[in-house]
Amino acid sequence: MFKRYFPILSWLPHYHGRLLGADLLAGVIVTIMVIPQSLAYALLAGLPAVVGLYASILPQLLYCVFGTSRTLAVGPVAIIALMTGAALSGVTTPGTPDYLQAALILSLLSGVMLIAMGLLRLGFFSNFLSHPVISGFLTASGILIATSQLGNLLGIESSGFTLVERLISLVPNLPSLHWPTLGIGFGTLLFLVLMRRQGKKTLMRLGLRSMLADLIAKAGPVFAVVITTLLTWHLGLAEHGVAVVGSIPQGLPALSLPWDADTSLWRALLIPALLISLVGFVESVSMGQMLAAKHRQRISPNQELIGLGGANLAAGLSSGMPVTGGLSRTVINYDAGAKTPAAGAFAALGIAVVTLSMTSLLYYLPIATLAATITVSILTLVDIPMLRQTWRYSRTDFSSMAVTIAFTLVEGVEMGIIAGVILSIGLFLYRTSRPHSALVGRVPDTEHFRNVVRHEVETASHLALLRIDESLYFANARYLEDTLYNLIATRPELEHVVLICSAVNLIDASALESLDAINAHLKDSGVTLHLAEIKGPVMDQLKRSDFLDELTGRVFLSTYAAWRELGEYSHSHPLSS
Amino acid sequence: MFKRYFPILSWLPHYHGRLLGADLLAGVIVTIMVIPQSLAYALLAGLPAVVGLYASILPQLLYCVFGTSRTLAVGPVAIIALMTGAALSGVTTPGTPDYLQAALILSLLSGVMLIAMGLLRLGFFSNFLSHPVISGFLTASGILIATSQLGNLLGIESSGFTLVERLISLVPNLPSLHWPTLGIGFGTLLFLVLMRRQGKKTLMRLGLRSMLADLIAKAGPVFAVVITTLLTWHLGLAEHGVAVVGSIPQGLPALSLPWDADTSLWRALLIPALLISLVGFVESVSMGQMLAAKHRQRISPNQELIGLGGANLAAGLSSGMPVTGGLSRTVINYDAGAKTPAAGAFAALGIAVVTLSMTSLLYYLPIATLAATITVSILTLVDIPMLRQTWRYSRTDFSSMAVTIAFTLVEGVEMGIIAGVILSIGLFLYRTSRPHSALVGRVPDTEHFRNVVRHEVETASHLALLRIDESLYFANARYLEDTLYNLIATRPELEHVVLICSAVNLIDASALESLDAINAHLKDSGVTLHLAEIKGPVMDQLKRSDFLDELTGRVFLSTYAAWRELGEYSHSHPLSS
Questions:
Q1: How far is the C-alpha of A475 from the C-alpha of B454, rounded, in Å?
Q2: Alpha-carbon span A374 to A224, nearest angstrom
Q3: What tens digit of pLDDT does each residue of B15-67 get?
Q4: N or C: which end of chain B has fewer CB within 10 A?
């Protein structure tokens, strides 16, 4: 019980020296690697760069205590940063103290919501974000983020949080294009793309071991930061108009609560906080599950909610921004050989040391370098083949995806995800409200029954075997009545109708009413209604109503039993289609 | 095509004398019978009594042209009047000209929405009002209406549109209880209840024929109106404080459109209009279907939307109020022998004649008489046995019902129906997100397979036959992964897993991703994944993906085929539970 809520107790008591060595090394590597992206994602959210560092310290420590994944690394991530920026600029003005305060409120709200969902075991809520919706959302967000960085890469101003707003805001500033910034930005972009695509291969050809080559290739952003910072400092580019990070306050953030914010701000951030929580949870938990599966470990989604909630509360208390388990930082941690959450704790301490003493080294770091880092890392989110694949597989799923993309690009991230979820649920309900049903016949010489239109099967004219391919519930109860009344209207010779319920997983009170009506109506028409292959749980429930007493016909265990009883006294004949 | 949109063409050309006689008699009876309820429902909505008459003329004529039911009678009904009152008092003050105008706007909006839904063939939308939600809503509305009439029956003031508001508003006025009003109100109430319960029986015992006795018993409200009006006039009770209908403008309503209303009023009434449209449609169409079934006729739900939409447009144009097919007026029409919609047209003309020339006769009609009429007619909506029955059958359905009742009573009719619909959809989604699944084995000596826990069946230890009892879609895709990973973790001797898809009616893109992941994961663990009994439409769709190429095992037509192939080479043994 205690261990369930404090997963740290499952590994810390057994911690030993060999684990310490591996975790310490991983911690150092992660510290160096995540600094550029932490700064970059804070800027992406419209916040000062140092907020990204703050959000990588205490949140990660909290996650170590409450999280269930061994190797998940928690901190600012691209999508959450984008959503944070959209939420904040909806309620305050970027660059003001209010904006910073709103970021803390957003983190706190998200933390409280995640913890509440965890305690109430509401992790299943995230299941309603379907794969096409998530995939469409990531693709559209990738495009949004890339365009948001165009201004930084070109050295001109851009603003707005939808695609159109951003592109339009760029146009009037195009003439003031800043060539040195553009050089740094696109130079870094090129370098990073090459490192990512060819780095490991080239380094291995130069004689490096696979693991080391991989590590160096992944450190591309670190090299880019070091090189462009030195270059900018040496050439005095900051004085020539290249935007740099500038002075970052040294020292750890003070712990504080934004009590003085007015309540309307809290209320305005409720929905954004909920969406950020859900998206962050889905991103984090699917990655955590993937990693756990590799080692035959398991993570607990509901405890993960508590872990991530704790991390966000910590972010809100320590001048941070909303956080979640990040793909790239987790992969770095995993590849660097992390064995337990202690590695994350060491990385957090490492970043704390940097924040305490080394922020002055980041003064000349060009914003364009960070923009290039963001751009390269998020373009992996854009998944065009998935679009094609989904189109081919299902137009329904594709339409959810397309609507999510369109709304995200045009109306922003929040409307995008809301529209996607509503549409995918609506389409599912619509689909189940018009269930597929099939008249079936016997596959000759077997006890198996299939659709008369698709297979060559035996049938009998006085007997209709109707397989209902959906649970019977309020949305399709009336549709079932229509189907049956049409059936008996078109086949006057019918004496028996058998409803095959092998695919009926539920009969709710509305459907029960309809079955009652159908039974009575068929009785008036001289047709007997039978049921077959009712599942255990459905049968248990039917027994609690009067329906089985009223039923004119019988309940058969199998379709074959019904066929033997009702079908064979007449001459059965094969029917081909 | 033309006939589809003008159902009048399907009966008017064949109209003949014998039908005319029957319809004319029915028309006269309906005219007399519906006047009291038309006046009463207008008062229930907070409108002048005459509005109820206006709403019984033109709307019924329009329905005759566009509606598909032969005997449905259209006009003001209790539930819609209650919803109208709630909607109007939310945006304007009862008794003002604005209030009247808002009623017209509500009718027009409802008319436009119904017609649009009909043309777009959106009749299926009403399916999402589940039976427990409707039943709960009717029960709660019945209670609300009864309490709303308490004030009129006692001769004191009451206000508000939720149960609590109403009861509280009564208390301070209780000392001013008006005894003559109370006498008329409760006297009428007693008379009407007796007529309803004992009237027919008593009259038959007095020697009347069954049909005539029934008709006279049903005319209870008409006698009550006549007697109490005469009494009030004769005793001069109006001068002693008994509230009466008072002077009603004589003549037909002028046709007009409320163009001068400001747009915010139109916008504020959008949601109420939608809810009124849906509830009215459901009430009307379910009654229409019931009556049509009695004569083996059929009604077209989408054309019904157009018919009811036309009726509401007509109501909005002719100083009326929202209307729909009413239970009591339809039953009167049907029992009086109506054969075609012409009966409704005659009744509409009859009411027009009354409105033109006889409204002065209604001057002394006591409001308390109308209140008693409403109270008796709506108490039939309160269906307590249904509550018990639903509780017994399904706690899920019961909870939808209970929430609908609670919200309707506490938060009003609109919130009640919205809460009910959202909850019933949410519960359905929750249920499908945690699907039932069962390991099955062979029923000895058959080709039939059932749950190993419920039946005595044959199994094999290296083979798991898993029947999934739900369509596979985004909400349960991850749940499926969990189920399978737990299965292979607990049975190390497993070599083959067969997913039996007889109940799987859909595999969406999210579930396909999960199946891909499961296939790969099982492969890593040395377990082969097979599928069986995939339905035609699902198989068609799977063929449009790469999944079948990746699948480590095979696709079997039937579970028995899989069993023969995979199960029998090891020693199979019966397993009892």
A1: 30
A2: 12
A3: 888 888 888 888 888 888 888 889 889 988 989 888 999 999 999 999 999 98
A4: N
| CA torsion angle A20 A24 A27 A33 (round to 10) | -140
Beta strands in A39-101 (DSSP E): 74-75
Residue among B133, B447, B541 whose CB faces A448 most closely: B447
Name the B residues in 392-421 with CB < 8 Å from any A CB. Answer: 392-394, 396-397
Chain centroid, CA B316 distance in Å: 23
What's the CA gap between A386 and A400, in Å, rounded? 13
The label of the residue with tokens 């804070």 reads A42
- Residue B564 tokens, joined: 């023969």
Tell me how far CA of residue A348 lies from CA of A75, A287, A299, A342, in angstroms. Answer: 10, 20, 22, 10
Closest in A130, A431, A558 to B448, CB measured: A558
The shortest CB-CB distance from A394 to any of B447, B451, B541 is to B541
**What's the 3-state SS for B254-266?**
CCCCCCCCCHHHH
Evaluate whether B83 touches B275 at the Cβ level (below 8 Å).
Answer: yes
* Local structure of A325: helix, strand or coil: strand
pLDDT tens sequence across B75-123: 999 889 989 988 998 888 888 888 989 999 999 999 999 999 999 888 7
Domain boundaries, chain A: 16-379+387-405, 437-575
The answer, for B554 touching chain A at a CB cutoff of 8 Å, is no
Q: Residues B345-368: pLDDT tens digits?
A: 999 999 999 888 888 888 888 888
User: Tokens at residue B87, please?
Assistant: 């909607």
Q: Is residue A179 within 8 Å of A242, Cβ to Cβ? A: no
The answer to whether A480 contacts chain B (CB < 8 Å) is no
Write out the CATH class of domain A437-575: alpha beta
Shortest Cα distance, chain A CAs vs residue B481, angstroms: 11
Q: Is A550 on the interface with B (CB under 8 A)?
A: no
What number of other Cβ atoms are within 10 A of residue A214's Cβ?
Answer: 16
- The total of other beta-carbon atoms located within 10 Å of residue B198's CB is 12
* Residues contacting B145, CB < 8 A, separation 6+: B44, B78, B82, B374, B375, B378
Q: Would you tell me which residues 501-520 of chain B have a C-beta closer than 8 angstroms to some C-beta of chain A? A: 502-506, 508-510, 512-513
Q: Is the Cβ pair B509, A558 closer than 8 Å?
A: no
Q: Is the pLDDT of residue A574 over 50?
A: no
Torsion of CA A338, A342, A347, A349, to 10 degrees: -160
Return the C-alpha torsion angle A266, A267, A269, A272, nearest 10: 150
Tokens of B170: 């009564």
Quick one: tokens of B196? Answer: 């309803």
B573 in contact with chain A, both atoms CB, cutoff 8 A: no
Q: DSSP string covering B2-22, please?
A: HHHH-GGGGTGGG--HHHHHH
* Cβ contact B447:A447 at 8 Å: yes
Nearest-by-Cβ selection for B429 from A425, A436, A443: A425
Asked whether this complex has an ipTM greater than 0.85, the answer is: no
Q: 10 Å Cβ neighbour count for A175?
A: 7
